[in-house]
């Protein structure tokens, strides 16, 4: 199959690279000439484990190429994937579809034959209908079939998720378009049993939002249970295990923490609420989730302040991990942003270490001093706070940390250290949803 991938963001670049690795011929198109130039040099615009090697091997094999020229990219394509951004529109939280529609128009004008147009960007219900309308406006686009194929990959595990998905969702009622999609995803069904779920287009569009909203609800649920655990002397990790072993609940996404962030959950829950509002069908559970999660990120700053005795004026706090989760350099809606703001507002000085996030974090956190290592962030600080659970923080020498801290306090917002281990090192540990000691 010949595939054009419009947009080389997270989803576009990973999908393009993986499709080429399946053996398809893929051209990735982006308007950003600098990005394309970097990709030509083998430099990845994002940090994602394994991506650079995957891109390099497929470029070398002649199956993957990059261009700023959309017309050249879509020439002769069997399928054109739209994987451009759908950010929250400033002001109202609706998904901003201007990039999707602009891409659709340009694709329509440049098609050279019948093609399947696939929206991979996360788009609100009904977007496919609009893309189809745009196709019909131009003679060259009139024969195109418009399909929804949402992407469920997670940042940091993107290649693994793409190549071994739980399911592939394809939204179209058109049999020919289904055949093209079957051919594209055939390598997945050969090696393993990833089911392709064929649905109507609107259903497929909604599946993506419903999945993300459900996961956001699940995280937020366990976060609230964590708060209750702290009050009643229970342990949220044991509660999560105890409920997660019930297959109907499942053990994943039950890790209590400082609240979800990232490029998807915050934006997609808001967009879903807009769709619900427009259709006069309130989704109260999702509404509550958004509110609880926003409040939680701020509350985590107060939690640190409380653990430090209530007054942090003139104190220094070391932070480990700034990105919204490990194995990414993504700072979008990261809980660290709210936590640092709360600590600085209360008069503290913050220093921080993150294995990959510095470049993105620096402009967002202008008053933070960036440390060279986890130990440097602890050196001379009044407390050390783990905000993101990078693997590099899982086996720290706690004795060394204790010796470097002015006050032996470790606030572990991801519960990666058992209290006994911290105690042995002479550190006071404050976790999330843990019974209070002493
Ligand atoms: C998510 C979805 O998982 C993915 O299917 C979709 O395509 C895009 O959005 P991603 O944003 O990359 O992926 O990260 P994910 O691993 O899902 O984590 C999202 C946020 O939830 C992070 O801030 C993470 O720290 C938090 N989280 C996740 C928890 O706090 N607890 C958990 O148990 C799981």
UniProtKB/TrEMBL annotation:
EC number: 1.1.1.22
Binding-site positions, substrate: 152-155, 208, 253-257, 261, 325
A biological-process GO annotation: UDP-glucuronate biosynthetic process
Reactions that this protein is recorded to catalyse: UDP-alpha-D-glucose + 2 NAD(+) + H2O = UDP-alpha-D-glucuronate + 2 NADH + 3 H(+)
Binding-site positions, NAD(+): 30, 35, 86, 122, 155, 267, 332
InterPro entries: 6-PGluconate_DH-like_C_sf, NAD(P)-bd_dom_sf, UDP-Glc/GDP-Man, UDP-Glc/GDP-Man_DH_C, UDP-Glc/GDP-Man_DH_C_sf, UDP-Glc/GDP-Man_DH_dimer, UDP-Glc/GDP-Man_DH_N, UDPglc_DH_bac
Residue span, UDP-glucose/GDP-mannose dehydrogenase C-terminal domain: 318-419
Catalytic residues of the enzyme: 264
Pathway: Nucleotide-sugar biosynthesis; UDP-alpha-D-glucuronate biosynthesis; UDP-alpha-D-glucuronate from UDP-alpha-D-glucose: step 1/1
A Pfam family: UDPG_MGDP_dh_C
Keywords assigned by UniProt, alphabetized: NAD, Oxidoreductase
GO molecular function: NAD binding; UDP-glucose 6-dehydrogenase activity
Family label: Belongs to the UDP-glucose/GDP-mannose dehydrogenase family.
PANTHER family to which the protein is assigned, alphabetical: UDP-GLUCOSE 6-DEHYDROGENASE TUAD
Protein name as catalogued: UDP-glucose 6-dehydrogenase
Native species: Sphingomonas leidyi
């Amino acid at each position: 199959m010949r595939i054009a991938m419009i947009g080389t963001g997270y989803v576009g670049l990973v999908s393009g690279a993986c499709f080429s690795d399946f053996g398809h011929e893929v051209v990735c198109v982006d308007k950003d000439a600098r990005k394309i130039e970097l990709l030509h040099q083998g430099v990845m615009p994002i940090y994602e484990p394994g991506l650079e090697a995957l891109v390099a091997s497929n470029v070398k094999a002649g199956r993957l190429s990059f261009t700023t020229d959309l017309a050249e990219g879509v020439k002769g394509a069997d399928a054109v994937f739209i994987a451009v951004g759908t950010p929250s529109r400033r002001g109202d939280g609706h998904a901003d579809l201007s990039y999707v529609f602009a891409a659709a128009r340009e694709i329509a004008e440049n098609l050279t034959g019948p093609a399947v147009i696939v929206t991979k960007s996360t788009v609100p219900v009904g977007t496919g209908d609009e893309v189809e309308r745009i196709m019909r406006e131009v003679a060259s686009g009139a024969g195109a079939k418009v399909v929804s194929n949402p992407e469920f990959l997670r940042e940091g595990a993107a290649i693994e998720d793409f190549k071994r998905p739980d399911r592939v969702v394809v939204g179209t009622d058109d049999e020919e378009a289904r055949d093209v999609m079957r051919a594209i995803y055939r390598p997945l069904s050969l090696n393993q049993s990833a089911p392709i779920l064929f649905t109507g287009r609107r259903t497929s569009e909604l599946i993506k939002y419903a999945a993300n909203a459900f996961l956001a609800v699940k995280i937020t649920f366990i976060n609230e249970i964590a708060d209750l655990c702290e009050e009643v002397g229970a342990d949220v990790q044991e509660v999560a295990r105890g409920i997660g072993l019930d297959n109907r609940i499942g053990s994943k996404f039950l890790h209590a923490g400082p609240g979800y962030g990232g490029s998807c959950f915050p934006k997609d829950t808001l967009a879903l609420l807009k769709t619900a509002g427009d259709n006069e069908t309130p989704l109260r559970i999702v509404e509550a989730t958004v509110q609880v999660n926003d409040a939680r990120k701020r509350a985590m700053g107060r939690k640190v302040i409380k653990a430090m005795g209530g007054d942090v004026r003139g104190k220094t706090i070391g932070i480990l991990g700034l990105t919204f989760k490990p194995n990414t350099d993504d700072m979008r809606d990261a809980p660290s942003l709210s936590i640092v703001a709360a600590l600085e507002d209360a008069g503290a000085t913050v220093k921080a270490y993150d294995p990959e996030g510095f470049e993105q974090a620096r402009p967002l956190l202008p008053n933070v001093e960036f440390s060279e290592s986890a130990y440097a962030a602890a050196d001379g600080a009044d407390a050390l706070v783990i905000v993101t659970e990078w693997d590099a923080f899982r086996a720290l020498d706690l004795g060394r940390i204790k010796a470097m801290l002015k006050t032996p306090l470790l606030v572990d917002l991801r519960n990666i250290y058992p209290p006994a281990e911290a105690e042995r090192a002479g550190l006071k540990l404050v976790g999330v949803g843990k019974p209070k000691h002493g």
